[in-house]
Design a protein that fits this description.
heterodimer, A: 445 residues, mainly alpha, two-stranded antiparallel ribbon, 15 helices, 71% helix, 6% strand, B: mainly alpha, two-stranded antiparallel sheet, 4 strands
Chain lengths: 445, 338
C-alpha cells in the first residue's frame, strides 16, 4: 500500500476504536449488572447475589484497566491523527468532550472507593450507594462522547462564513438531531451486551456440569435483564432507522442496498453484489423498508440514485447493517426463550441447546457492537463532518502513520492476550465453590 | 485576567495536579519493582499497593483532562502539536497503556508477577521522560513549519542538551516527589522500616533533583534566551521554590513534620511550575502560537469555564471522600481495615 496518511489514519483509528469499544461497552454495562446483583442480594437477603456482584466487580477491574488505557489512547489519537478536524471540533464541540472527562473522573473516583469498601461499612446500603455514581458516570460519559459522534453525523450549532466558523452555539451542537437516537442506542446496547457476556459465563458453567445454585441465579438475573434490554434495543433501533431515513438517507440506502428511489420499498436481507452491481441471493421483504423508514408501506424511500457517487458510502456497510440486526434479533429470541421456558416449561430451562445458545450470545453481542459501529462510521464516509469536511481533509499530514499503525496493532494484541489470560487465571484459581465454602455459604444444590 | 489566561491557568493547574499525583504513582511503581527484585523490604510493597490501588484510575484522569482541555480552549494547538507529535505522542500512549494495564493485571490478577511488575515499574520512569517532549518543543526550534505542513526535527530534539536536561529533571523529580510522599505515608502507617527506606530515598534524590533544576536554567538560557530573560524577571518564584526545597530537606533530616514536608514539596514544585508557566506566556509554542491567537471562540470559552466550575463542584466533595477513606484513614493505611 502506498503511503497515504489519511488512509492509515483511518485504519489506525478504526483499530483503536474497534479494540476500545469491547472494553468500553462492558465498562458502561457491567456496573449496572453489578448494581442489580448487589441490590437483589440486599433485598432478598441472599448472599449468593452479593457474591455475584463481588466476583463480577473483581473481573470488571481488569477490563476497566484496558478500557481506561485504550480510551486514553483514542483521546490522544484524535489530536495526533486528525489535527485539522480537532481544530474545528475544538471550536464547536469541545463541550461534550470536556464533560465526558468530568463524567469519567466521577466514575473513576467512585469505582476506586466501591472496590475497596466491601467490608468497610456496617450498612450494606451504604456500600451499594457507591456504585450508583459509577453507573451514572459511565452512562454519562457514553452519552457525551456519543453526542460528539452524533455531531459528526449531523453538524449544527454554528455558521460557516467563507470557510470560517462563526456564531457558535455549543448546546445546539451537542443536542443535534442525531444525539437522542445515537446515545440511547449506544447506552442500551452496552447494557444488553454486558448482560449477555455475564450470562455466557453462567451458562458455560452450567454446561460444564457445575450445577451450583449460584450459577442458576446468575443466569436468571442476566437473562431477564437481557430480555428487557433487547426489547428496548429493538425499539430504539427502529427510531434510529427512521432518523436515518429523514436525515442521512444515503447511509440507510447504502446499508439496505436501496439503489432507486421508490415507494413501497422492499427490505433487502443478506445477498451479495455481483460484478454488474446487482443483488443476488438476497431475501426481499416487500414494503418493509418503507415501514422501517417512515412507518407506513406506501412511503417513498430515497435511493442512492439521488446522490453523486463521490458522496455515497461504500456498499460493504450492508453486511454490517444486516449482521447487527440479525444478531439483535437472535439475542432477543434467545432471552425470550429463556424467560418463556422458565415461566411455562421449567423443565427446559437448563436445556443444553438453550444454554449453548446463551453462550454464543456473549461473543455475538460484542460482534454486533462492532458491526453497528462499522456501519455507523463507514456509513458516513466520505465525510468526517457530514456535509462539511471530507475525511482526508481532517487527517494528519505527518509521516510514519503506517509504522504507528503496526506498533498499535502489536500493543492491542499483547493487551488483549494478557487480559484474557489474567481473567482466566483469576477465576480458575478461585472457583465459586471455594469462595462459597470460605464465606460459609456452601448450601448449593 | 483575560479569559485566555484563565483558560491556560486552569489547564496548567491540572497538569500540575497530574505532575504531583502522577509522580507519586510512577515513583511508587518503580520502587515497588526495585524492592521486589532487590528482595530488600518486601513489606514496603503492600504499603505501596494500599496507596495506589484505589487511586490509580483517578490519576490518569488528570492527564486526560489536560489534553482534552487544551484542545477545547486552544483548538489551534491540535493542529501544531497534533501533527508534530505523532511519533513521540504515540510512544507515550503505548507506555501509558502498558503501565495502566499491567498495573491492574499485577494488582488485581490472580498472582503477583515479576514481569508485570517490571513492566509497570519501568514504564513509570519512561512516561514522564516521554511527556517532556511537549515541554521541550514548546520552547521552539524543533518544528519545521511551512504553509501546510508541520514536521518535527527529531534529530535536533534528540541531540539538544536542553531536551535531555528536561528529561533528567523529570525522572529525578518523580523519584523525589514519590519518596517524600511515601516516607510520610510509611510514618503514618507506623512502618518504621519502610519509613527509613523512603527517607533514605528522599535524601538521596534531593541532590540530583536540585542539580538538574539548576542545570536546566543554563540549558534554557542557551536554547531560548528570550524565555530565560522572562524567567529572570520573576526570579523570586524560583527562589521561593528553592526555599521550600531546603525546608523539605531539613524536615526530612530531622524526621519531623513529614506531612508538612510533603506540602513543602508540593509548594516547591508549585512555585517552579507556575514560574515556568507564567514566564512562558503568552506563547503556547514559541514564535508561532500565543494563547491569544489560539483561543477558542468566546461562547465556547465561557461555556467551558462554566462547565468546569460546575464539574468541579461535583468533583471536590468526591475527591475529599476518596482521600478521607484512603489517604487520611490511619486504620486503612496501617492495613487494619480493608
Amino acid at each position: 500500500m502506498e503511503y497515504d496518511p489519511a488512509t492509515y489514519s483511518r485504519i489506525l483509528t478504526g483499530v483503536t476504536l474497534g479494540f476500545h469499544i469491547i472494553f468500553a461497552t462492558l465498562g458502561v454495562g457491567v456496573p449496572l449488572m453489578i448494581a442489580l446483583a448487589e441490590w437483589t442480594g440486599m433485598r432478598k437477603n441472599d448472599p449468593h447475589y452479593t457474591l455475584l456482584a463481588r466476583r463480577w466487580a473483581r473481573g470488571f477491574v481488569v477490563t476497566v484497566a484496558v478500557g481506561v488505557v485504550t480510551g486514553t489512547a483514542i483521546g490522544l489519537q484524535l489530536s495526533l491523527l486528525w489535527p485539522n478536524f480537532m481544530q474545528v471540533a475544538g471550536q464547536t464541540i469541545a463541550l461534550p468532550l470536556f464533560l465526558e472527562v468530568f463524567a469519567f473522573f466521577f466514575e473513576a473516583i467512585f469505582l476506586g472507593i466501591y472496590l475497596y469498601t466491601w467490608d468497610r461499612f456496617k450498612s450494606k446500603l451504604k456500600h451499594f450507594l457507591l456504585i450508583i455514581p459509577v453507573i451514572i458516570g459511565a452512562s454519562f460519559s457514553a452519552f457525551f462522547i456519543t453526542s460528539l459522534n452524533a455531531f459528526m453525523n449531523a453538524p449544527q450549532g454554528f455558521e460557516l462564513v467563507d470557510g470560517v466558523i462563526q456564531n457558535i452555539r455549543p448546546l445546539e451542537a451537542m443536542f443535534n438531531p442525531a444525539t437522542p437516537t445515537k446515545t440511547a442506542h449506544v447506552i442500551i446496547t452496552c447494557y444488553l451486551t454486558a448482560a449477555f457476556v455475564l450470562a455466557m459465563i453462567a451458562a458455560y458453567k452450567l454446561l460444564k456440569g457445575d450445577r451450583n445454585v449460584y450459577h442458576k441465579k446468575a443466569l436468571h438475573l442476566t437473562m431477564v435483564s437481557a430480555f428487557i434490554f433487547a426489547i428496548a434495543t429493538a425499539l430504539i433501533g427502529d427510531f434510529s432507522g427512521k432518523y436515518l431515513a429523514e436525515y442521512q438517507p444515503e447511509k440507510l440506502a447504502a446499508g439496505e442496498w436501496h439503489f432507486e428511489t421508490e415507494t413501497e420499498a422492499p427490505l433487502v436481507l443478506g445477498g451479495v453484489l455481483n460484478e454488474e452491481g446487482e443483488v443476488e441471493y438476497a431475501l426481499e421483504i416487500p414494503y418493509a423498508l418503507s415501514i422501517l423508514s417512515y412507518g407506513y408501506p406506501g412511503a417513498e424511500v430515497t435511493g442512492l440514485d439521488q446522490f453523486a457517487p463521490e458522496d455515497t458510502p461504500p456498499l460493504i456497510v450492508h453486511y454490517f447493517f444486516d449482521g447487527m440486526i440479525a444478531i439483535g434479533m437472535y439475542l432477543m429470541f434467545i432471552s425470550f426463550l429463556y424467560v418463556a421456558f422458565r415461566k411455562f416449561k421449567p423443565a427446559w430451562q437448563y436445556n443444553r441447546w438453550l444454554l449453548w445458545g446463551i453462550v454464543a450470545g456473549g461473543p455475538l453481542s460484542l460482534l454486533a457492537i462492532e458491526f453497528g459501529w462499522m456501519f455507523a462510521e463507514i456509513g458516513r464516509q466520505p465525510w468526517i463532518l457530514y456535509g462539511i469536511m471530507r475525511t482526508p481533509e481532517g487527517a494528519t499530514t505527518a509521516d510514519h502513520v503506517d509504522s504507528m499503525l503496526y506498533m498499535f496493532i502489536g500493543l492491542y494484541t499483547v493487551l488483549g492476550v494478557s487480559a484474557s489470560l489474567v481473567l482466566r487465571k483469576m477465576f480458575r484459581n478461585n472457583p465459586v465453590a471455594h469462595e462459597l465454602e470460605r464465606r460459609g455459604m456452601d448450601k448449593g444444590e | 485576567m483575560t479569559m485566555e489566561v484563565w483558560g491556560i491557568a486552569i489547564l496548567w493547574l491540572f497538569l500540575y495536579g497530574y505532575m504531583i499525583v502522577g509522580s507519586i504513582d510512577f515513583g511508587a511503581g518503580f520502587f515497588h519493582f526495585y524492592n521486589k527484585v532487590s528482595k530488600k523490604k518486601h513489606p514496603v510493597n503492600s504499603l505501596i499497593q494500599r496507596y495506589l490501588s484505589p487511586v490509580w484510575e483517578t490519576t490518569n484522569v488528570f492527564l486526560v483532562f489536560f489534553f482534552v482541555g487544551i484542545i477545547g480552549f486552544f483548538p489551534d494547538t491540535a493542529y501544531y502539536y497534533g501533527t508534530a507529535l505523532l511519533v513521540p505522542g504515540s510512544i507515550s500512549i503505548v507506555l501509558i497503556a502498558i503501565r495502566g494495564s499491567y498495573y491492574a493485571f499485577n494488582t488485581y490478577g490472580a498472582s503477583d508477577s515479576k514481569v508485570y511488575s517490571f513492566l509497570y515499574g519501568i514504564t513509570g520512569l519512561l512516561i514522564p521522560a516521554s511527556f517532556t517532549t511537549v515541554l521541550t518543543i514548546s520552547e521552539g526550534g524543533f518544528l519545521d513549519i511551512s504553509e501546510n505542513a508541520v514536521t518535527l526535527d527529531l534529530m535536533a530534539l534528540l541531540t539538544s542538551p536542553y531536551s535531555w536536561s528536561v528529561v533528567i529533571l523529570a525522572v529525578v523529580s518523580v523519584l523525589f516527589i514519590s519518596s517524600s510522599f511515601l516516607q510520610y505515608y510509611a510514618r503514618k502507617a507506623n512502618d518504621e522500616a519502610s519509613f527509613e527506606l523512603f527517607r533514605k530515598y528522599t535524601l538521596f534524590w534531593s541532590g540530583p533533583q536540585i542539580l538538574a533544576s539548576v542545570f536546566i536554567f543554563f540549558a534554557l538560557s542557551e536554547h531560548n534566551p528570550a524565555h530565560f530573560a522572562d524567567m529572570l524577571d520573576i526570579w523570586w518564584m524560583f527562589g521561593l521554590s528553592f526555599v521550600f526545597f531546603v525546608g523539605v530537606v531539613v524536615l526530612t533530616v530531622l524526621k519531623r513534620n513529614l506531612g508538612t514536608a510533603f506540602i513543602l514539596v508540593m509548594l516547591q514544585f508549585f512555585a517552579a511550575w507556575f514560574g515556568y508557566g507564567a514566564s512562558h506566556l503568552p506563547w503556547l509554542l514559541y514564535d508561532y502560537l500565543t494563547i491569544y491567537d489560539g483561543f477558542v471562540n468566546t461562547t465556547m470559552g465561557i461555556t467551558l469555564i462554566v462547565s468546569f466550575i460546575l464539574g468541579f463542584l461535583l468533583l471536590i466533595p468526591s475527591l475529599y471522600l476518596l482521600m478521607r477513606l484512603f489517604l487520611f484513614d490511619t486504620e486503612y493505611i496501617r492495613g487494619n481495615k480493608k
